[in-house]
Structures are given as structure tokens and as C-alpha cells.
Design a protein that fits this description.
By secondary structure, the protein is an alpha/beta fold. It contains 19 helices and 26 strands. The longest helix has 20 residues, at 405-424. The structure holds 2-deoxy-2-amino glucitol-6-phosphate (AGP). 2-deoxy-2-amino glucitol-6-phosphate (AGP) binds at residues 303-306, 350-352, 355, 358, 401-403, 491, 608-609.
């Protein structure tokens, strides 16, 4: 939510910012703006709506200058409008601020500033920050005024400040919202996320909460809120610029769906050895997992798609490792008063590592003595840094709002952990363990094979393009698949209502809605619950419901139960949600594409939900 960029260097600032902001579009936004310093002072340009509107405007009426800040805003306080878009300026027009987060005490600060004669133009919480700095800078140098202002803010922020009185530097700060510093050749950046600076910065500093930065083209000076200098070592950026581009694909989502064989292979790399029939992790994660193997209880917390991965993880861990697992939505976990202590391990699953509820959940867990393992995709993210141990999924940057490759990489990571713990706890040994290791290593090829049926899946999707209601039903390992299939469809195709259900729950309510024109997608791969699912299909057919069935290849009898049949390669039930994710993603994608939906940036959604 909200994307921030700041630039200090010799290139044209606005050009640099627009490219960076376009790589942050995936975060979700509803207006955009830039501020640049030139010999006339500060020039600000903002537009409501898509970034393209701002780009077109700036092409017609360019703004020149190098030192600059830019922003994509996801509205929290005040409607998405040009006036409320960032950057916000002070009364004199010499200071400009971009902000991600929420200032909780903004109305109290606003009253004080109004009383001192400040004039406000927007309804945002952000505008108080720039007026507060203006007020404090009347009596002290800008850097001190910036820090004094930060000390008065309550809530969360990633901030960037540009002042016409300081033409060589930007100031930045982080507290509860992500902000990084990118270091390039005689240029430096602030950004919300690494994709924004790919190709320009070679290394990155992941700022901590409480960090304040004075940024010049030769690099950052990081300090704390007392002004004390802090050491922060830059990390080399490994992601490739191609990862932040569509590379000929119509959408990032489609590109990322097709990247899944590679993403899964990267999750397994250096951890799975088929030759030795073994699983291992880096030293810290492995010793953490060895500790978990003695643990009494695991709680998985996550949001959205990552929560669905957690539900699959529950089946995996309980079945093979015999470890009791609870799975909680992070937004519920943090408020329900869970009973935690040193015998509990909390596993946080998150692509971005910045989801506000998941972050708050792990903080609460740690305060109560539990230990925390993160399964995370983004290196250096808040959750990755605050957890006691991290298992990176290494799926590469996921740009589309709808999670695809991060999900199957999370499932793969959970499979690795489950099998490792199962072996450690002596629950899975000998031939059976070796078979599972081989099953895991076969996943990238199996996913490639599943992706090869895209044309078949697209044909099935074409039959249902006009439908506006869907159910997705599954059992056991594929109950979470049903939830995920429904989420994918409604997320990228907002015209459609889709609901995922445990197939066994149908009779307890939802079956009353079954009728012609209300298709039901059944997850019916070869599995221990296959016969039960067939009974559920019969029940739907008896009520004239149309069944789209996802089944294992070679199943010659199922076609008679299905209006439409999609086949997936045969696999162990344990791995089936990973394979079944592919047709569900492609089905949603092709329905959304035929309905001309904004697939990569669905309305109202943000990639990383950094406010609760
Ligand atoms: C997935 O398609 C969604 N965009 C969303 O549900 C997402 O999974 C959720 O917001 C959690 O994000 P995280 O994995 O970055 O924590």
C-alpha cells in the first residue's frame, strides 16, 4: 500500500521517479504525484487515478530537476483525489513530504498547527507532518526539526522529505512501514521496495524502525531519533531487472504463473538432496527446526493466500510429522487473546513480509515468550528480520497483486519443513521417506507439465465467462485449494462472486443456492477422500448444478460427472494442492482476461497490506 520513491543524483528526477513508481504500481494505489527541485523552487504535480494519467501530463508539461520525491497513494484518510494525493507541501511551498502509513494523532496535531496559523489543503493525515516540520524548522536546523517532528508522531510511517533549502539531500525515516535505501553509481534512492530501484542501485539498506536517514548522492547517513550515527551494512541486490518487467507477457500474473517451476526449484535448491535422500537448511533455520521438533504446539498465522497455504501446512504437518497445528488468520490471532508461552512456536507465512496483521501477530507472540519462524519471500522485510528464524521461499519478486508463484513456493516450503520434521521425529523413515523426497524433487517438472494444459484450461474458462457466481469445493488437502481458487477469481475479476467451501459443508447451507448457471468447481484429484467428493458432485448434479471437475489424469470414469473436465498430473495427495493451484490460477486468469479486468492491479486491492 502506497509506494514511495526519492532520488538524489544527476539524472532527470521525474523520469527516474516515474520508472520507479511504475514498478511500485503493484502495491495498489489510487493517485500519484511527484515533487522536484529546480531553479524555480519546488514543482509539484499530482493526479488522481492511474499513474499513466500523471505520466501523460508530465510528457505534455515536463518538470525538470534532479532532487525529487514521488508517491503512489492508497487512500486511508480522505478520498482518492488530486488534492489528497502526495507529495504534500507546507505553507511556504518549500518543503514536500511523501508518506506511507497512518498518523494516529494527526487531528490533535492539526488543531495545534491550525491554532498557529498553518493552512491545510487536504483531508489527509500526512499533511500535518509537513506543517509540523515547517513549524519546528522556524527555530532549528532542518535535520533537527525533522527528528523533533518524528518524535511527536504516533502511528506508522515511512517518510521522505524534500526541502528547497537543502538542494543536495533528502531526509527519510521509517517506523512501522517499509522503507529502503538504494545505492547506485553517484546516485541514491529511497523506495518502498527493491523492484523500484532495480537496474539503478547495486546494493540496498533495509532500514529498521526508528532509523532516520540523511541521503546524498554519495550515500546515506543513518541515525537514531537522538541523532546518534548507526551502522547499517548495504546488501547486494540479487534480483534481476527482468523480474520487474512483463517480458512479453500480457500480465505479470501470467508471467508469474509460468515462473512456478523455477520458483519451486528455487525453494528446494540447496535444501533437498535426492542423491542423499535428505533435507537440510541453513544453520540457524535448521537448529530452529530441530527445536520445533520437540515442541508441543505450532500456530500458523497469515492473511489471504498465505493463510490458505497455512491451512495446507496444517494437513501436511499433522499427517506426516504428527505435530499438533492450529492455523489462524493473523487479524484474528492478534485480538483473540491466544494462550502462548515458550512451548509454542508461531509460524508466520507471508510473501511480502510487511503485512501489518502478521507483523503485529509475531510481535505479540514474541512478547508472550513464543518463538517465531517466518516463511517469507522478500529478503530483509520486517517479518523476516523480526522472526527468530526465516525460511526464504526464493520465488523471486511477485508483482501481480494476485499471489501465484509465492503461494506454490510457500506450499513447497511447508512440504520441506513437514518432511524434515517427520523424519526428525521418526515418523517418516526408510522407503516412504525416500518416496516423498522424490515426490518433492519431481514438483518443478510436474508443474511444467500442468502448465502445458493452459490451452485446455482456457477453453474451459471460455464457457463460463458470463457466469457471475461460482462455488469452489474440495476436501482435506484440497479444501484450502477451493478457498484459494475462489479468492483468485473474485480478486482479479471483481464482477464475480466466488466462494470456497469444504465440500462436506455443502449440505449445511450453500447447497440451497445451487442452480443452472451457477457453476461449481470441484477439486477431485486422486486422494483418500475421492469417493466422498464424488458423492458431493452427485448432490450438485441432482440440483442441476454445472460441475467443472479438476481430476487426476488417467481417471477414465470421472468425465461422466463433469460438464467440464480439467486434468492434472497424478501425484501423492500430500503434493496435490501444489499441482491443483495451477489450473485454478489459469482458470481465474482467463475468465478475468475475457471480462477485460485489470488483472495485475484489481480495484481496491494492494499487494502488500501495511495497514490493518
Ligand atoms: C493474494 O492473492 C492476495 N493478494 C492477498 O490475499 C495476500 O496473500 C495477503 O494480503 C497476504 O500477503 P502477504 O503474503 O504478503 O503477507
Amino acid at each position: 500500500m502506497c509506494g514511495i520513491v526519492g532520488y538524489v543524483g544527476k539524472s532527470e528526477g521525474v523520469e527516474t521517479l516515474l520508472e520507479a513508481l511504475s514498478r511500485l504500481e503493484y502495491r495498489g494505489y489510487d493517485s500519484a504525484g511527484v515533487a522536484v527541485l529546480n531553479n524555480k523552487g519546488l514543482d509539484v504535480r499530482k493526479r488522481a487515478g492511474k499513474l499513466q494519467g500523471l505520466i501523460d501530463d508530465l510528457r505534455r508539461h515536463p518538470l525538470h530537476g534532479t532532487l525529487s520525491i514521488g508517491h503512489t497513494r492508497w487512500a486511508t484518510h480522505g478520498e482518492p483525489s488530486e488534492l489528497n494525493a502526495h507529495p504534500h507541501t507546507d505553507c511556504t511551498g518549500q518543503l514536500a513530504v511523501v508518506h506511507n502509513g497512518i498518523i494516529e494523532n494527526y487531528s490533535e496535531l492539526k488543531d495545534q498547527l491550525l491554532a498557529k496559523g498553518h493552512r491545510f489543503r487536504s483531508q489527509t493525515d500526512t499533511e500535518v507532518i509537513v506543517h509540523l516540520i515547517e513549524e519546528l524548522a522556524k527555530h532549528q536546523p532542518l535535520e533537527r526539526a525533522f527528528i523533533s517532528a518524528l518524535k511527536q508522531l504516533r502511528g506508522s510511517y515511512a517518510l521522505c522529505l524534500l526541502s528547497s533549502a537543502e538542494p543536495q539531500r533528502l531526509f527519510g525515516a521509517r517506523h512501522g512501514s517499509p522503507l529502503i535505501v538504494g545505492i547506485g553509481k553517484a546516485e541514491a534512492f529511497f523506495a518502498s521496495d527493491v523492484p523500484a530501484i532495480l537496474g539503478r542501485a547495486s546494493s540496498v539498506i533495509y532500514l529498521n524502525d526508528g532509523d532516520v536517514v540523511d541521503l546524498t548522492s554519495s550515500g546515506p547517513r543513518v541515525m537514531d531519533l537522538s541523532g546518534k550515527r548507526l551502522r547499517r551494512s548495504p546488501k547486494e541486490i540479487h534480483w534481476d531487472l527482468a523480474a520487474a518487467r512483463k517480458e512479453g507477457c500480457a500480465h505479470f500474473m501470467l508471467k508469474e504463473i509460468h515462473e512456478q517451476p523455477l520458483a519451486i526449484a528455487q525453494t528446494l535448491a540447496n535444501r533437498l538432496s535426492v542423491a542423499k535422500h535428505s533435507i537440510s537448511f541453513d544453520r540457524r533455520t535448521q537448529s530452529f527446526l530441530n527445536k520445533i521438533s520437540q515442541q508441543e504446539r505450532l500456530i500458523i498465522i497469515a492473511c489471504g493466500t498465505a493463510y490458505h497455504a497455512g491451512l495446507v501446512g496444517e494437513y501436511m504437518l499433522e499427517e506426516v510429522a504428527h505435530l499438533p497445528v492450529d492455523v489462524d488468520l493473523a487479524s484474528e490471532f492478534r485480538y483473540r487473546g491466544p494462550l502462548l508461552d515458550a512451548r509454542t512456536t508461531v509460524v508466520a507465512i507471508t510473501q511480502s513480509g510487511e503485512t501489518a496483521d502478521t507483523l503485529a501477530g509475531i510481535r505479540m507472540a514474541k512478547e508472550q515468550g513464543a518463538s517465531v519462524l517466518a516463511i517469507c519471500n522478500v529478503m530483509g522485510s520486517s517479518i523476516a528480520r523480526e522472526a527468530d528464524a526465516v525460511l526464504y521461499t526464493h520465488a523471486g519478486p511477485e508483482i501481480a497483486v494476485a499471489s501465484t508463484k509465492a503461494y506454490t513456493a510457500q506450499l513447497t516450503a511447508l512440504a520441506l519443513i513437514s518432511l524434515y520434521l517427520a523424519h526428525k521425529r521418526q515418523r517418516l523413515l526408510g522407503t516412504r521417506f525416500r518416496q516423498m523426497i522424490e515426490g518433492l524433487s519431481a514438483l518443478p517438472k510436474l508443474i511444467e507439465k500442468t502448465l502445458a494444459s493452459e490451452a485446455e484450461i482456457k477453453m474451459v474458462a471460455a464457457k463460463y465467462v458470463k457466469c457471475r457466481n461460482f462455488y469452489f469445493l474440495g476436501r482435506r488437502y484440497n479444501y484450502p485449494s477451493a478457498l484459494e481458487g475462489a479468492l483468485k477469481l473474485k480478486e482479479i475479476c471483481p464482477l464475480i462472486h466466488a466462494e470456497g467451501y469444504a465440500a462436506g459443508e455443502m449440505k449445511h447451507g450453500p447447497i440451497s443456492l445451487i442452480r443452472m448457471g451457477w457453476p461449481v468447481v470441484f477439486l477431485a484429484p486422486q486422494a483418500s477422500v475421492y469417493d466422498k467428493i464424488i458423492s458431493n458432485i452427485e448432490e450438485v448434479r441432482a440440483r442441476k448444478g454445472e460441475c467443472i471437475v479438476i481430476a487426476s489424469e488417467g481417471n477414465n470414469t470421472i468425465a461422466r460427472y463433469a460438464e467440464s473436465l480439467i486434468t492434472i498430473p497424478k501425484t501423492e495427495e500430500f503434493f496435490s494442492p501444489i499441482v491443483a493451484a495451477i489450473p485454478l490460477q489459469l482458470f481465474a486468469y482467463h475468465i478475468a482476461q475475457a471480462n477485460q479486468c485489470d488483472i495485475d492491479q484489481p480495484p481496491n486491492l494492494a499487494k502488500s497490506v501495511t495497514v490493518e
